[in-house]
Amino acid sequence: MTAQLVEAQLPVTRACEITGLSRAAYYKRPESAAERDAAVIDALNAIVENHQRWGFWKCFSRLRLDGHKWNHKKVHRVYCDMRLNLPRRTKKRVPDREPQPLDLANKVNDCWALDFMHDSLYCSRTFRTLNVLDEANRECLAIDIGTSIPSARLIRTLERLIDYYGKPQAIRLDNGPEMTSQRFVDWARAQDIRLRYIQPGKPNQNAFIERFNRTYRNEVLDAYLFDSIDQVQAITDQWVYEYNENRPHESLGNIPPTQFMPRLTTAPNLYNELPT
């Protein structure tokens, strides 16, 4: 209001008298909160960017370790002004992917397909399965089972399969954390294997392994009550052998995968040798 009176050609002294504002306050304009607390804001942003799950006291302790002398009241005020005290989304958005056409491979080891499944034992303990399929003849190369299958175990399983069957030209897979980890990406690059990531929310781009998962769940996971991981692995290994060697496959003309397109090497005892 004082500024408007001054703009109307009223002297500053008279304008301040009318509005009840001191001349010192008029000439010394207050800084905005963003300007006044810029250093605190920058320091908090640097911490939260790398540690999104940290709360206020963890951030404040880190600021003190970094040599900042602000007291906790000031830091907490800025922390709340930045709305960091509210729940915030910390999940990373899945990157956009190019569409992956479901082309039928002409020979074995052209393209393998990977996927994970979940189930539980009779005691309610959960476990995961890593399913590996050759898209050319729909042969199941391995089903690795464990309570946890991180990227390191995924790499060990694929390396064992490569030793038996040879290296694939490409691998079709989704955007799970094990498959998008830098360790797995670097391993595939070193092996000169192309990674065909499907688009998020488009499981039809990995239809061969999805259809196999349905069969495996119907004939094994939903058909038994398991007491241990070893029991799941033993029953699964026997089923995989029957699936590859004896079970007629409708899309292959009602013949088993290994008869439809044989490969030079087979590994019927591979699954029991996979590391746990």
Care to describe what's here?
This protein has 276 residues and is α/β, with parallel strands linked by helices. It folds into 2 domains: 2-81, no CATH class; 111-273, Nucleotidyltransferase, domain 5 (2-Layer Sandwich), CATH 3.30.420.10. Helices cover 43% and strands 13% of the residues. It has a 5-stranded mixed sheet with strand order 3-2-1-4-5, with helices on both faces. A hairpin with a 5-residue loop joins strand 1 and strand 2 (126-134). The radius of gyration is 31 Å and the shape is elongated. The relative contact order is 0.11. The model is unreliable at 268-276 (pLDDT under 50).
Compact summary:
By secondary structure, the chain is of the alpha/beta class.
The unreliable regions are 268-276
Order of helices and strands: HHHHHHHEEEHEHHEHHH
β content, as a range? 5-15%
Q: Helical content, roughly?
A: 40-55%
Sheet with the most strands? 5 strands, mixed
Global outline: elongated
Q: Which CATH class of the largest domain?
A: Alpha Beta
Radius of gyration: 31 Å
Instruction: Provide the spatial order of strands within the biggest beta sheet.
Output: 3-2-1-4-5
> Can you count the beta strands?
5
The CATH architecture of the largest domain can be given as: 2-Layer Sandwich
Mean pLDDT: 87
Q: How many separate domains?
A: 2
CATH fold-type name of the largest domain? Nucleotidyltransferase, domain 5
Number of helices: 13
SS-derived structural category: alpha/beta
Distance between the termini: 76 Å
CATH superfamily of the largest domain: Ribonuclease H-like superfamily/Ribonuclease H
